[in-house]
User: Fold this.
Amino acid sequence: MISKKVANVQEALEGVKDNMTFMFGGFGLSGIPENAIAELVRIGTKGLKCISNNAGVDDFGLGLLLQGKQIDKMTSSYVGENDEFERQMLSGELEVELIPQGTLAERCRAAQAGFPAVYTPAGFGTEVAEGKETREFDGKMYVLEYAFKADFAFVKAWKGDEAGNLIFKGTARNFNPNMCGAAKITVAEVEELVPVGTLDPNQIHIPGIFVKRIFQGEHYEKRIEQRTVRQRQ
Amino acid sequence: MISKKVANVQEALEGVKDNMTFMFGGFGLSGIPENAIAELVRIGTKGLKCISNNAGVDDFGLGLLLQGKQIDKMTSSYVGENDEFERQMLSGELEVELIPQGTLAERCRAAQAGFPAVYTPAGFGTEVAEGKETREFDGKMYVLEYAFKADFAFVKAWKGDEAGNLIFKGTARNFNPNMCGAAKITVAEVEELVPVGTLDPNQIHIPGIFVKRIFQGEHYEKRIEQRTVRQRQ
Amino acid sequence: MLDKNGIAKRIAKEVQDGYYVNLGIGIPTLVANYVRDDIEVEFQSENGVLGMGPFPFEGEEDADIINAGKQTITTLPGASFFDSATSFSMIRGQHVDLTILGAMEVAENGDIANWKIPGKMVKGMGGAMDLVASAENIIVAMMHTNRAGASKLLKQCSLPLTGVGCVKKVVTNMAVLEVTNKGFKLLERAPDVSVEDIKKATEGELIIDGEIPEMDI
Amino acid sequence: MLDKNGIAKRIAKEVQDGYYVNLGIGIPTLVANYVRDDIEVEFQSENGVLGMGPFPFEGEEDADIINAGKQTITTLPGASFFDSATSFSMIRGQHVDLTILGAMEVAENGDIANWKIPGKMVKGMGGAMDLVASAENIIVAMMHTNRAGASKLLKQCSLPLTGVGCVKKVVTNMAVLEVTNKGFKLLERAPDVSVEDIKKATEGELIIDGEIPEMDI
Assistant:
């Protein structure tokens, strides 16, 4: 078994530099790599180009990096539950590239799986396709979208083992598995690091080969963005 | 919950006609849809175009359909542990298209996921790429390979529920998940059909949306092609 | 005239037995409340869940189980969770039978605009562009006119598009309309709304063929 | 001269700590037996398993747990199973560090032919074309000459290719050779094999630079 375990978040982020491109797993605030984000805030890395479906809220998630003006560019599908994001975007401090959510997922998967580009129908005929190559297959139009290139992918799983095998929980799975192995270095933080051999080989969502470093995360807040409930009858 | 359950293999194969294109899951004899194959032998459907990684052995798997001369064309990556296959291929009775295994998997996945075609490096510069479009990305050459089009996909899972959710076991998983939803009608046979709600939603390999019909298979032989053991010390 | 719940109620009648349905944010979310009890339907949310149930009871919310609107949800027996790429495989691969979403504008050729107003803060398209580019069956739920009273059913969209020629049906507070290759074909009127009212509120080509029945909701 | 086990033993020295390795059928399979005990290596098989262990004890074979050669296998702690598309994501995405496979012919430019002999029954390429097209680190394990005594290290392959310019290293029963842009660079001789013997058995351009050491196996 090849060990991917590192002692802590500091070791997990070794090699992180200003102006790099990072992927962050998560949908809204669900399944985000809280420890990696907190450490990036602490070390103050600047000029980041971030690939993440969302941009957090003002005081949590990637919003924390925005507060510190650590991000130069966001590539996302949905943003702006976030005043500071809006301010930086409208003032031009922050470059924002909005792309369809399925395109975002598949550009990650393409990078993971060694595909240079994919043809997707999403965005054809819209400004998302402007300047991009388009092509007809069987009477339907597609846009050529390229695999992402990133330096680090920060993902968060529910359980993992020293071999880097990951299991996600519920919809906290989202983009996390698609980003594993999609950057030069994939850093996984887990709620529970279990002994090798305790995960069923049949039930692993991401085999360890896609993960470079794994560590036991701490103090997960797991904030809920839209707490919606029904009344007990 | 949308029910996909059908009573038996006869009902599962409703609509099967001569000259159709079928996908079959399995690698060697592992994870093959034994019940569907047996029923196709029984009803004697002819002129089949089959997409399957392998072609079975003389007296099991797709070899049974070859014995009955029911297959016109095989699209596979590796064939010929099979005398009848060889005879039919060399005599020209059987058309054989050999394609790289990863290409086969991805052409299934493309059909499942709504991609018209993919660029893969496999086969570039070889006869597999003859007559196909090629293209350079970042200094590397790729071949454009098209999504499969099939009428039925026959897959076999370990466990499944009435909603069509599937779980595979070990390497019997192979192409089975990639073929689900990759044909007009996906028929899943399972070793064990469990009550809805007993499978953990977090641990489902293929969500039921990719499956059209599911049934409890019978009399699984699960033959081993290369029984290889080591001596007890 | 219908209110939002009325629109949702009318759209719910379009949902058929055995449908996998993706509901957008806003009015579409309400549709789930009105689907008949005697049919089987599963709701997909593009963040990675199939088989969504109602909101959780207070105290039972789970930060790891949300819908695409980031609301806490529950799941029903037979549900499954999956990653984003798989989720859009369901959508792009046309395994989802019906997509219901809101819009700012719909054009008579089926174009839809629902993600961006130039000059205003843009939140993004989320999964909407994937949904409209792939779905075979798209119903738009929206008000017939905007707050200023201007029609949202246009000859051409004025806002940046989300997708081209993709909308099949529109249900508004005033009418049910089918998008045909000749324009919006009026199918039904809302209670207390006349064909004349709809004509006035529709900028795009409106096809009125025979008697237009009132909605039965 | 080495036998098949000798070739496997020499190749095993190329396997480094932390490597994910894909082993082809034949001699490559034997490599697993000779990898040092003090390094951590995981074997991937393209039919969908990572972390393969030894063959099972008699009576413990499982039809659902096989390798790409269709042999019954076991798994080690930390193993995982996955579908074929994911398996080739590992390969195409260059997550597998080393690919070891057999060949019928290798050309001095790194071309490889190992799947088809025209006029003979063709079994297919299996995963070989994906492996050679994607792997950054490919070692070929083969006999230096064929049964008729003709060289298998050629100026140009005569058989249909499996991949172009992809082989980095060749280990035969006679030598270890690196594929360079000038041809086969002789790195090591097998025990009791002279540089002259290797010259005679190599049709492709052979680069001999200084003293050629004997293999240490």
